[in-house]
Amino acid sequence: MECEIRMDELSPGLREIADIIGLKNLLKLVNERGGESIYIPSKKTVFRMHRDQKIRQEFSGSNHGELARKFGATTVWIRKIVQRS
Fold this sequence. Notes:
Layout: H1 12-21, H2 23-33, H3 43-58, H4 64-71, H5 75-83
Helix pairs in contact: 1-2, 4-5
């Protein structure tokens, strides 16, 4: 059963989410994932995951130092990132 829901009919928490993603997307999310707990990672985590993927893609097998300089990390950290792939 579909019904028209307006922003002013939402709870404050749902209204806040609808303000960010739009009412249509909120209702789609409710339809697809209603009743579930959803974890949203921090911005820092999302960017770190993206950076680590780029490092793995650009790793040639011996360019630890170059990647460390390019991404502002240590060679030890670059080694840990590429070992996790």
